């Protein structure tokens, strides 16, 4: 990983207004089904991860675009209330990105994300943010909800400035092979790992095999999350470590991965070693599934520490 001194977490990515419905089951195609509850909150993988990093205790900075519509204040207010620096959150003449999320009684979800304003992010905006923030940041979080050329641009800038680059490859799709040597830590779940590598991930052994696919292409650490089976970290020297699952009552899995990513980055930015950062991030991800909604489910630092003490 990068040799940067402890500093802030820089997040370049998406922000949305999350429209979420909760029901006992999901409707069949063409069916109308009555639900139980509805929420409208800040979301987007980039914004969620920035909020999680801030709640974890890091100085979090977010780079992205929001529309000039009725959702603008929901987005900006949610980030600001979480203590995230939004100096480089740009308002553009378009609609704010939207995520339509459906959650069933088991806590499983499906999501349709419409980028809208997120598509207006530019290389110039990213470069300006790095000019302001790179020297005092140590970790950059990236995802795949903004145009891939911009993700690559931000990752290259982060590497040039010595930041540790963490990629949450979601939503998963085929990527340019040039990306992998630029990544310090990649964090796919089992579905994303399968889509990217072609290797079905069903247990620890297959997770190690999928992780090796990333390492063979230049990634320094591959961390495959396995939902109820914990996670598996494989380092570039081939060393594999299993992190056991933390048992909780699942209400809604939305943003669990974002809680994990934000706390992982915050731990690394504070100077924690990778294993300690993963253990703390695992607790944050577990707590996130016990609450409804995306950003409302992201835990605070004190909640995570109390949870870990009770294990």
3D structure, described in words:
K(+) binds at residues 252, 254, 288, 291, 293, 297. This is Ribokinase. Its EC number is 2.7.1.15. By secondary structure, the chain is of the alpha/beta class. 33% of the residues lie in helices and 24% in strands. The strands form two sheets. It has a nine-stranded mixed β-sheet with strand order 5-4-1-8-9-10-11-12-13, with helices on both faces. The chain has a four-stranded mixed β-sheet with strand order 3-2-6-7. Strand 6 (97-103) and strand 7 form a beta hairpin. The model has no long low-confidence stretch (mean pLDDT 94).
Beta-strand content bin: 15-25%
Low-confidence stretches: none
| Gap between N and C termini | 30 Å
Read across the widest sheet, the strand sequence of neighbours is 5-4-1-8-9-10-11-12-13
H-E order:
EEEHEHEEEHEHEEHHEEEHHH
Largest sheet: 9 strands, mixed
What percentage of residues falls in helices of 4 or more residues? 25-40%
DSSP strand count = 13
C-alpha Rg, in Å?
18 Å
Structural class call reads alpha/beta
Please state the overall shape, judged from the principal axes of the Cα atoms. Answer: globular
Note the total helix count: 9
Query: Can you give the mean pLDDT?
Result: 94
Subunit structure: Homodimer.
InterPro entries: PfkB_dom (IPR011611), Ribo/fructo_kinase (IPR002139), Ribokinase (IPR011877), Ribokinase-like (IPR029056)
GO biological process, one term: D-ribose catabolic process
Catalytic activity: D-ribose + ATP = D-ribose 5-phosphate + ADP + H(+)
